[in-house]
Amino acid sequence: MSQTMTTERGKRTEAKTYKNYIGGRWVESKSGKTFTSLNPAHKDQVLGVMQASNADDVNAAIEAAHKAFSGWRHTPAPARGEIVLKAALIIEQRKDELARLMTQEMGKVLKETGGDVQEAIDMGKYAAGLGRHPHGETVPSELRNKWCMTERVPLGVVACITPWNFPMAIPSWKIFPAVMAGNTVVFKPASDTPIIATKLVEILEEAGLPGGVLNLVTGSGADVGDVLVKDPRVQGISFTGSTAAGRHIAEIAGHNLKRLGLELGGKNAIVVLDDADLPLAVDGALWAAFGTSGQRCTAASRLIVDKKVEKDFTDQLQERAAKMKVGDGLQPDTDMGPVINEAALKKVHEYTEIGKKEHARLVHGGDFAGSEGWFYRPTIFADGRKDMRMAQEEIFGPSTLVMPVSNLEEALDVANSTQYGLSMSIYTNDLRKAFHAMEEMQSGIVYVNAPTIGAEIQLPFGGVKNTGNGHREAGTVALDEFTEWKTIYVDYSGRLQKAQIDTGE
Ligand code: UN1
After folding, report:
1. Final residue of a domain: which of 448, 477, 497?
2. Most buried residue, 86, 123, 245, 449, by CB count within 10 Å?
3. What range does the domain containing 202 cover?
C-alpha cells in the first residue's frame, strides 16, 4: 500500500505505508492517524508513512504478548535460539540493503550503518548461543539429602523502547536477549527510525518467531510509550534514550515496582597525556567526536588534553576536521552525515551560541552546512573549563570541547566532574598512568589508547551515575535485565529439616 504525500515544501511524493505488528498480523492503528519518516539528508524525501498509534493499539499489543507468553516460555531455550540465529543470518544476507535504508532514514554514512547492522548480527548470533548456556547453578546445602539450585525465569511481557541513533543494534541488544529468556515483547521504536525497526520485526517473523512473541507499535512517547510503561501487565521495561525521558519512565516504573533497565545520557571524555601518541589520539578524537555526527551515547564531547601538547593536538584536530566532507551518507566521499532532525540541528547550534557566550574559543565549524538536509559542520571549541555548560550538558551532535589540564590528576578530576559516566578513554604510553586512570575513571566503559566508541556485544554495555540505573546490556549479563532468579530447595530426607538449626548430622 502506498500513499501520495505533499511534503513541507509542497512537493508531491509516493510513499509506502507501514503497519503495526500485533499478534502475528500487520494492522493499521485504531487512531486512523499516521506520521511520516523522513530522510534527514533530504528533508523533502518521505521514506514511509507510519501508524500514529494510540492506547487501543498498545492495549492490543500487550494483550497479544500476554497471550503468547505461556507458549513461548515453555518453548525450549535452544529452540528459541534457532529462531534468533536464523534472524541473524537473514540480517547478514541483507546487510547492504539494510545499511542503505538506515543511512536514508537516520543519516549516518554507509560504513557506519553497516557497523550498526553488523552489531545486530553479532548480537543475534551471541544471544542464540545463550539458549544452550547454563541458566542456573547447583549449590551445596548445609543439610543432608537436600538439593539446592537456582534457575532463571522470564519476567513476562517486556517493553523495549529504543532510540534512533543505533536503530538496529540497540533493539537487538534488547529484543534478542528478552525473547531468548522466554519473555514476550512490545517494541516501541523511535519515531525517527520506524522503518528500519519494521524491517527487524519482518525478519524475526520470517525467521519463524511465533505471533504475539514480538509486537511492534509505532508512535509518539506520549501516546504509545506512556501507556506501555504504565500497564500492569508489562513486567519489565528496557529503555535507551534521553535522561529526561528515562527519569519520567523511572518514576512510573518505580511507583509500580517494575523491572527497569535504563541507558541514558553521556558526556564522554578522552584524556590525552603529554606522552601520548598524538596522531593516534587525534584519529581517535575525530572518530569519537564526529562519527554518527556525534550522535552516540558514547561520543566524545570533551577532549581533556595536557597543556604541553594541547596546541599541537588542537591544530591537528582542526586540520583534520576541515577536510571532512559533510553530506548525504549514501555518497562514498561523505565523511559525516546530517543530524537527525530540525530540533537536533537547533540544539547543536544553540550550544555553539552558549559556547561563545561562555568564552570557549571556536576553533572550527559552529555553523550550518547546507539546507537540503539537517547538516552541521564539525565543531570544535577550545579553552574549555569544567564549569561551562558545554562541558556539562549532553549536546548529541558534532560538537566537541578541548579542555586544557596540567597533569593526570587534574585530567581525572575534570573527566569525573559531570553527572554522567558511560564511556571514557585515555591516551598514554605510561602503563602506570593508564592503570591509575582505569581505576579512577567513574565510567561504565574505559578505553586505553582507543576512542570512547567501539563497544563490542560480548561485553557488558552501560554506564554509572546518571547514565543509567545499574543495569548492563549485552555481554555475559545480557539476560540479567530480562530474568528473575528462582531459588529451589528439594528436601528428599523424608523428615522436617530446619536450616540454621539442625546440624545436618
Ligand atoms: C550508543 O551510542 O548508544 O560503542 C551505542 C559504540 C557502539 C554502540 C553505541 N558500538 O559506540
Report:
1. 448
2. 123
3. 54-264+468-486
